[in-house]
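Standup notes
- DV: blocked on the single-chain target, sequence here:
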Amino acid sequence: MSPYGADHGSGDSYRDYGTSGSASFQEPVPTGASSGTISENSAPVVSLVPSLVLAVISLVLSSVITFSSMGPTDSSYRVMSLVAWAAAGVIGITAMSLYFIADTKRRALGFYQIVSWKQAVYFATVALLFVAVVWSAVEIGLWVGKL
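- DV (later): unblocked, structure below
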């Protein structure tokens, strides 16, 4: 006899779990299904740290170049502007791929929750990288213009 009563058919489509009277009832896990629970996922903000750090380093180098007495004809100006551009433009933007890979994997796992502060960190990182790349590219342009 089915534990669900006569309203559910003949009992062929329902498994008899017994009537042992135990207070805890657990649904059986279908064969091939995972027994884990669905976990909440959100953006992997830790993966943004390398890009954020490189953007800040590039901005610091660019500000030192711009606000110091260093001129575009100095050799240290050239080196610092190229390092600032490489840090933000090449390495920083490439490091963003770590975030995109991890974020795509988390979105594919199931329930994905958008957290506002994590989204703000993402947009701040993108904005800082953009400013750092443009600022260092302008400095490189000033150096090339003085050749």
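- Follow-up: Residues 113 and 129 are 25 Å apart (CA to CA).
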